[in-house]
Amino acid sequence: MSASSRILNLAVIPGDGIGQEVVAEGLKVLSAVLPQDVKLETKEYDFGARRYHATGETLTDADLDALKRHDAILLGAIGDPSVPSGVLERGFLLKLRFAFDHHVNLRPSKLLPGVATPLAGEPQIDFVVVREGTEGPYTGNGGTIRQGTEHEVATEVSVNTAYGVERVVRDAFARAQARPRKKLTLVHKNNVLTFAGHLWTNVFHRVAAEYPEVTTEYIHVDAATIYLVTQPERFDVIVTDNLFGDIITDLAAAVSGGIGVAASGNINPGGAFPSMFEPVHGSAPDIAGQGKADPTATVLSVALLLRHLGYEAEATRIEDAVSADLAERAGQPARSTAQIGDALAVRVAG
Amino acid sequence: MSASSRILNLAVIPGDGIGQEVVAEGLKVLSAVLPQDVKLETKEYDFGARRYHATGETLTDADLDALKRHDAILLGAIGDPSVPSGVLERGFLLKLRFAFDHHVNLRPSKLLPGVATPLAGEPQIDFVVVREGTEGPYTGNGGTIRQGTEHEVATEVSVNTAYGVERVVRDAFARAQARPRKKLTLVHKNNVLTFAGHLWTNVFHRVAAEYPEVTTEYIHVDAATIYLVTQPERFDVIVTDNLFGDIITDLAAAVSGGIGVAASGNINPGGAFPSMFEPVHGSAPDIAGQGKADPTATVLSVALLLRHLGYEAEATRIEDAVSADLAERAGQPARSTAQIGDALAVRVAG
Ligand SMILES: CC(C)[C@H](C(=O)O)[C@@H](O)C(=O)O
Ligand SMILES: CC(C)[C@H](C(=O)O)[C@@H](O)C(=O)O
To answer: Taking CB atoms and an 8 Å limit, are B225 and A225 in contact across chains?
Structure first.
């Protein structure tokens, strides 16, 4: 649904732990930034640990049908220690990414003025990772035999298709072309994972020929972690596989201000299914319900959501408000989740 | 071969790029530190880009037979841009690790006084990663169909066996038990790679029961990269899969002084095959032949080699010499590869 239709019909999934709190602030800022003539319709969905314990369900076909009818999805966080590892991840988060073909997992990293970084000096960080979201080792292919015995063999199969790799590589080239520095780095491990590595590398070079203005480079994933802490300024756009993207975007978030400010979009560029936007952080059960969670990552995810739906000016207003807010935070006493949300809502409306 | 036999029969593989230079210094320090009554016998082997271009060979059965007769192997670096990515990695480095069953890939990280780190503040870093070396996504299992077409499918299969996981987990518990802090962290991604993840997690818990004094924790690999830059002091011993180990040890090297000082051992603990010791860095063709390479990582790899062969006092002497040398480096003009080697040789002999 484009901006011109003037209804924004949003599925809201607060989820577990701090999810509830941060999503409330995300919606507060969203309401404040939307033009008067855009009607925001939200429907809240109950997913995560509570529902799993109550019903055994994580994400049903009926749920998917319902979610499909929205323009986009805003998610807080899913996950709780009371649920065995993997159940909600595979049964909800990944199931949704796969069902809605969220093949572009977009994760910008920008170190904003005034924001603390664990890195020494004054690193310049402003890049975006385009992580493939529907293939690689995340497909759930694999299995186990003789489980629990000394003869167990467990496999995980990374599946990579030319179709899947090419579409995400194309998306990344288009994003690089649109940025001032026009640089794209492919991160993989093509010297060891030679089958998948050759596919990624070949597709990358083929598409590169169509983007002569984009400077390209290839870096192994292990070396990429070094550069992320020693020369993060070398990155502009990074395109990478699902698992490598998972790893380097957490590191990227850590060096560019922490997961308290890291936003992400699980995007279906063609729009066949609604895209989902969520903070990179998890449900943080240890601080849940205390008003301590920083809603900034969720608010920035709302900006990505707006940009995806065509509300470019509103997205930029949110990002500017966050920059200004973060710049003022240094040295101030910690504010509550709601206080930060209020401050941002005032700024975007102003 | 144990220390009591008083012959140290070493295979030396200088390899490509800076490999030649750093290995020469490693041997210099080794000769200087060995007790008078230990006879050092070295045999140099020609592997890497030169031989590959001349003969097409990377590592033959005859080579393996010859290498097998040594007590240990010291390697400089293998790899050159003139050789297609993967050829020397799979055809030499990984082939050797697999042929000699180097299942314990040992990578200590210690931030020594005076050494620069990209991290702010004064991080305390002193941990060792026990990386599995013969399984996971490194097995070369997988393949490709319809290569080069738009219908290509390329797979990589991570193979994990109870046998392979248990032996490396046991090795890691024993190392943790022997250290003052007695803490072991399992790093995996068991919420997504559930087949392999359950195997690793179950084996880890089973072996943990035999080590009641060792504190254990589990961390996802993505979160581990965050902790490596925000709270590296939380780690004592880490045990992890081959690929995750590859990634986090480069990051660990970066935060603890750079790959110029990162050593590693590819160890066959039972001694059925010789173990191989090598700096974590690569062949760095851009600075090869200029006497600019820092031989410290190779010298520290020699220390690991000596400890593995039972020369504990000599290993410690090297490590102390390196600490002292690094502490004096700050603010001094850069020294050449040979100057650093000379200084270390003097120190260990003194
Ligand atoms: C929770 C988990 C399934 C997820 C992932 O691995 O993709 C998370 O780490 C992320 O990065 O969104
Ligand atoms: C060169 C490559 C095969 C190797 C690996 O991936 O193990 C290297 O990165 C390492 O860490 O020793």
So the answer is: yes
Strand partners, B106: B130, B265
DSSP letters, B183-228, are EEEEEE-TTTSHHHHHHHHHHHHHHHTT-TTSEEEEEEHHHHHHHH
Stretch A297-301: mean pLDDT: 98
The correct CATH number of B1-102+283-350 out of 3.60.15.10, 3.40.30.10, 3.40.718.10, 3.40.50.10860 is: 3.40.718.10
Q: Which residues contact A332 (CB under 8 A, 6 or more apart)?
A: none
Give the CA angle between residues A241, A244, A246 to the nearest 5°. 100
And the tokens for B8? 């140290």
8 Å CB contact between A237 and A176: yes
> B117-256, which class in CATH?
alpha beta
| Secondary structure element (H or E) that encloses residue B265, with its range | strand B263-267
Banded pLDDT at B62 (limits 50, 70, 90) = very high
Q: Do domains A1-103+281-350 and A117-256 have the same CATH topology?
A: yes
Decide: A155 and A140 in contact? Cβ < 8 Å. no
Q: What angle do CA A270, A272, A273 make, to 5 degrees?
A: 115
- pLDDT digits over A140-177, tens only? 999 999 999 999 999 999 999 999 999 999 999 999 99
Does A264 lie at the interface with B, CB-CB under 8 angstroms?
A: no
B183 included as an active-site residue: no
Q: Evaluate if pTM is beyond 0.85.
A: yes
pLDDT tens-digit map of B205-227:
999 999 999 999 999 999 999 99
Give the long-range contacts of residues B114-118, CB within 8 A, separation 24 or more. B114/B326, B114/B327, B114/B328, B114/B329, B114/B330, B115/B256, B115/B257, B115/B261, B115/B326, B116/B257, B116/B258, B116/B330, B117/A120, B117/B255, B117/B256, B117/B257, B118/A119, B118/A120, B118/A229, B118/A230, B118/B254, B118/B255
Q: Is B189 a catalytic residue?
A: yes
Angle (nearest 5°) at CA A169 between A167 and A170: 65
Ramachandran assignment for A22, one of left (phi > 0), alpha (psi -120 to 50 degrees), beta (any other) = alpha
Q: Where are the domains of chain A?
A: 1-103+281-350, 117-256
Q: Which of B117, B154, B254 sits opposite A226 (nearest CB)?
A: B254
Give the span between the Cα atoms of B298 and A107, in whole angstroms.
Answer: 38
Count Cβ–Cβ pairs < 8 Å, chain A vs chain B. 220
When scoring B195, B203, B283 by the number of chain A Cβ atoms within 10 A, the one with the most, hence best to mutate, is B195
Report CA A82 to chain centroid distance, whole Å.
24
CATH topology of domain A1-103+281-350: Isopropylmalate Dehydrogenase (3.40.718)
Residue indicated by tokens 């062969």: B309
Structure letter (DSSP) for residue A79:
-
Q: Which residues pair with A275 in a beta bridge?
A: A72
